[in-house]
Structures are given as structure tokens and as C-alpha cells.
Design brief:
Two copies of one chain form a homodimer.
Chain A lengths: L2 H11 L9 E3 L6 E5 L2 E11 L10 H19 L5 E8 L4 H17 L3 E9 L4 E9 L14 E5 L4 H10 L8 H8 L5 H7 L5 E4 L4 H12 L2 E5 L7 H4 L5 H7 L6 E5 L4 H10 L4 E8 L5 E4 L22
Parallel strand pairs in A: 4-5, 9-12
Antiparallel strand pairs in A: 1-2, 2-3, 3-6, 4-6, 7-10, 7-11, 8-10, 9-11
Helix pairs in contact in A: 2-3, 2-6, 4-5, 4-9, 6-10
Chain lengths: ~325, ~325
């Protein structure tokens, strides 16, 4: 299924059902926003399928962790506070040891974010498929559609580590040098604290699930702006930089790190760095927002456009999401 | 996967994550209840898998209808008002005609209940799998755990038609005599208006998804009571009665009609019938709640226990849910 086919499906389900006055933001962002009394709730869902979104031989605790982390990342991109989750789980068989470990990974991350699993549905199917619904309150939410020309484009943490970690995992590499990469693949950290700290300062935000360039394009499309990304400014972690020439491609096009990509006015840099430091993660300016049709241009140190090796992350079965 | 294995899985995921003061009701009912400001929200999820929960050759519009109907039925059993849905859809391929028809069925039912689809996630997988999350506000919710000895057990509408309809569908029967049964299989009516009308009168409620006897057992287990069901009082629709000797078994053990099974004090009968008539559906007293360990006893016209042909609905692949 190609990315354009996904766009087709998204169009099919946009605008479905009644129009409601309590829906502030529907399909097309990291989460939807609804108003309940005086409270805004962010609501999101993500599906993970064995051998599409995670290797079948991944440690089950990390599968539980990652299932929730991917969903929490959607809340992080809205600046929302995690509160509740419901799990729709399809399993080929019941393996108590596997379930115990998977539950443990999910439970630990849920507790660390004060989130309660409040319901679910279990069905039998050939392949492990898990859809998690998450919700929680948010004041002054971040959205994808607020970026303005002149804003600076920032990224949190170290993009590309998870994609490099996947390549190592599939190649059977398990050494100390690649351990940080594999850890990031299996146990991404949702940037909840950062997302909450960015409210009132960032003009737009998206989580990096498809890749830095691809998600920058999503943000630009929703905001009606263009972006220029400076390849030389994209931060490379020591573990990723040690992978040599492919490092930048992973950082530009690898998803699954669940960092935040966000925009802010040019004079907000000092405040952003301070708030991010309080949230426990570095942030790096990697580009600028410009006027024009939604597009992302990658430029080299001399300012001339570069061709990106890939334009977005494809899941590791090689056929897209 | 047997029913006991499902119970095992439910135990695995009960109590997962943090304890939150805003969660009034967690796993184990038709929906969870959370408090947001002064409003109670009911939140639920259900998964439907091709060839497990619906025949792959069912009309796509009816698949869209049924996916939402099954989820709305969970809200109906809580007395909640449908508001928002998020769809996690796994598809083997993109077929525009199929998607258009499926969307149409979903859209029509959503609009008729004032519900908006506000988000979703689409992934590729071998077999069509759809998990729908629904939510909406509820004052004075119905729950499974309020039945008391002396209460009367009621059922809405005509249980068993969908299960008989499935047998007809699988046997290739398409005559006018079985059309009402097949319609009920493909296009169940969620009892939203009835559920809302029962608030403040019914002491407990559950939707009939596994079968009348099985879901009566679920209600008894949550309420800590027993129930006696009088086989002769279980309503049989004309179309179902025409199926002969198997009709009662369908009505007792067939799921998928998504009727409501509920309890109310013995003196509430007249008020119940009036409210149900206003909601456009008949209700029938089929048994009584008694003190004792959670169990459901089926009795004949003479009051002597009968053996039920089956104790709960198994989905039509014959291996359970």
C-alpha cells in the first residue's frame, strides 16, 4: 500500500458522520480535540502490527512499551496530558509468559505517565495487531496548522537512532556500540513533558513518526507554508554518527524515534532551550519556515538544495505502512 | 481461543496503569466511565475481523453500518449519548468501490445518531480488521453491577434473529421469508434511545452480544446475583419462530442482535413498557433476579430447569471470538 493510497483512505474517512459543535479539531492532526464542559480533550488512536511496526522477535516488554509510547507521542505533539487508554488487541494465541512481559512494559510506561487502562477488546487473529486509543486533557493545545513564515523549525533529541537501530537489529548486530540505537528502536521516549512545556511558545508541532522531512511536509501542508531544512544542522547522536555515511539519511528519513518537530518565532530560542532543558531533552534549530506552497527543501552548508536519499520512513517490510 | 482464554486475557489487562480519581468505572462493563469537569463520559472499543465477526461477502455498506452499530450498542447499554468515534482500520488492499460503500454505511448510521468521526489510523494487513473507539456523555449511567434480588429481567426486541440470519446466509438462503433475519445480521439497530430511556429506572443493563444467557451471566457476575430465565417467555419474532425447533436456541444463545438485557424493580413494569414504546422497541420480562452465587438457570413452563443447547454465542468460524 503506497503513501498515496493512504492519503486516499484518509480522504475517505474525513468529514464522516455528523458535524458537531464540540469538535474543535477533527482528522488530520496528531490527535483530535473535543470540548467537554470547560475542558479540551485530545483523543488519538494508533495501530501496531507485528512485522510491520515492530519485529516479531522484539522483547515483549518493549512491544508493550512501544505500543503505548507511540500513542503517547501523539498526545505529546498536542501538548496534552495522558489520562486514559483503551486497548483493542488481536492475538494468534495465548502465551501467558509473553502476555505477562508485554503487560509489564505497557504498565510501567502507563504508571510513569499517570495513565489508566480503562477498557479494551480482545479478539483472535493470525497476526498480533494492537490498536490503542488514548485521551487526556489539554489547555492551549499545540496543532500542526499554526506555523508562520519566519518561524524557526526545531527538532527535539536525536532523530534517526531508531531507524539505524532497526537496521542493526535486522542484521543481527547486538554490540555495545549499537545498544543505544536498539534501545531507541524498542523503547522510544514519548516527549510528553516537552510537548506540555512548548504550549504558548511553539506555533505548531508534529511528532516524527514518518521521518523528519516527511513530517515537516505534513506540518507545512496543514499550515500552508514551506520549510527549508539545513542538513548540516540536523543533530546526530554519537551512536548514530558512528554509523558513518548513512547517519544523516537515518536522521532525515527514519521514523520511529517519536521526537517532536515544532516551529516557534525566531526570538523564542532562549526560552525554548530553557523549557526543553527543564523537560529533560535538547532541542535544535534545523530550518526555517517560508511563504509558499507546502514543500520542504533540504539544503547543504552552502545553502544549495540537496536531494534527500528518501522522503519518508517506510516500515521495515519494505512496502510502506 | 476459548472463552476461558479470553477471561485470562481480561485479567491480564485489568488494573493496568495508574489509579486515577477521574475513572468512575474501568474494565468489565460495556464501556468505561470517566469524569471530565462536571460531565461523565462513556468510552468503549470493539474490534470486528473479516470472517470472524462478519462474512467477507457481506455487503460493504452493511459492514460499515455494523462496525458502528456494535460500538453504539456499548454506549446504549450505558445509557450514553453517542458523540465521537476514532477508527483504526487494517486493510489488505485499497478498493475504492468497496471503501465508498463501506463509508456510506458508517456515515449514514453516524449521522442518524449525531456522531462525528474525529480521527483514525490506517494500516496494511492480510485481513480486514477494524477497531472503533466511541465516546459520549452520560448522566446517571446504566451499569452491569446494580441488579438486586427481586428485580425482573427484561430483554428488548427480538433476540436470536441475527444468529438465525447468519445460518441462512451461510446456507445460501436468500428468500423473502429469511430477509428480516439477514437484515438483522447485517444491519443491527443499536438501542440508543432505549438505553437513554432506561436511566433512572433500570438497575442494571448489558447489551446482548454473546447471547441472552451468556450476557445474563455477565450481568449476574458483576452484580453478585443469580438469575432465572423462563424459556417460554423469551420473545420469538415471527421470522425466527418460522425456523421451527432451533428458534429458541437462537434466541437464548445467539449474539449479534445487540438487544439490551436489563433489570428493574418488579413494580417498574408499566413505566418500562411506556418508555420503551416511546423509544420505538418492545420490551419483554423473561426472568427474575435471585440471591446467590452468579449463575443463570433456564426453566421450562413448569418451572423445572432445562439444559440450554449452548451457553453462549461463538462466532461463526466455530472457534470462539
Amino acid at each position: 500500500m503506497s503513501l498515496s493510497e493512504f492519503a486516499l483512505i484518509e480522504r475517505f474517512f474525513t468529514g464522516l458522520g455528523a458535524e458537531r459543535g464540540d469538535v474543535t479539531l477533527g482528522c488530520g492532526d496528531d490527535a483530535a480535540l473535543v470540548e467537554v464542559g470547560g475542558t479540551t480533550l485530545a483523543l488519538a488512536v494508533d495501530t501496531m502490527i507485528e512485522d510491520v511496526h515492530f519485529p516479531a522477535d522484539a522483547p515483549p516488554a518493549s512491544i508493550g512499551h512501544k505500543l503505548l509510547a507511540v500513542n503517547l507521542s501523539d498526545l505529546a505533539a498536542m501538548g496534552a496530558e495522558p489520562a486514559w487508554a483503551l486497548l483493542a488487541l488481536t492475538l494468534p494465541a495465548v502465551d501467558e509468559n509473553w502476555l505477562t512481559a508485554m503487560r509489564g512494559g505497557l504498565d510501567a510506561l502507563a504508571r510513569s505517565h499517570g495513565l489508566a487502562l480503562i477498557g479494551g477488546d480482545t479478539t483472535r487473529g493470525e497476526r498480533l495487531t494492537a490498536s490503542l486509543f488514548v485521551g487526556g486533557p489539554v489547555d492551549n493545545p499545540l496543532r500542526r496548522d499554526g506555523a508562520r513564515p519566519g518561524d524557526v523549525l526545531w527538532v527535539s533529541g536525536w532523530p534517526g537512532e531508531a531507524a539505524a537501530g532497526l537496521a542493526c537489529w535486522q542484521a543481527g548486530e547486538r554490540g555495545d556500540d549499537v545498544a543505544p540505537l536498539i534501545e531507541r528502536l524498542h523503547r522510544p521516549t514519548p516527549r510528553i513533558a516537552l510537548g506540555r512545556a512548548l504550549r504558548g511558545l511553539a506555533t505548531a508541532a508534529v511528532d516524527v513518526s514518518d521521518g523528519l522531512l516527511a513530517d515537516a511536509a505534513h506540518l507545512c501542508e496543514r499550515s500552508g507554508v514551506a520549510a527549508t531544512v539545513r542538513a548540516a544542522d540536523v543533530p546526530l547522536s554519537p551512536a548514530l554518527a558512528a554509523r558513518g555515511g548513512a547517519a544523516l539519511d537515518y536522521a532525515l528519513s527514519g521514523g520511529d524515534d517519536y521526537e517532536l518537530l515544532f516551529t516557534a518565532p525566531a526570538d523564542a530560542g532562549e526560552a525554548l532551550r530553557r523549557r526543553a532543558a527543564d523537560a529533560g531533552v535538547a532541542v535544535t534549530p534545523v530550518g526555517v519556515i517560508t511563504a509558499g506552497a507546502a514543500a520542504v527543501t533540504l539544503v547543504g552548508a552552502d545553502g544549495a538544495p540537496l536531494a534527500a536519499g528518501r522522503t519518508g520512513y517506510r516500515h521495515f517490510d519494505g512496502t510502506g505502512e
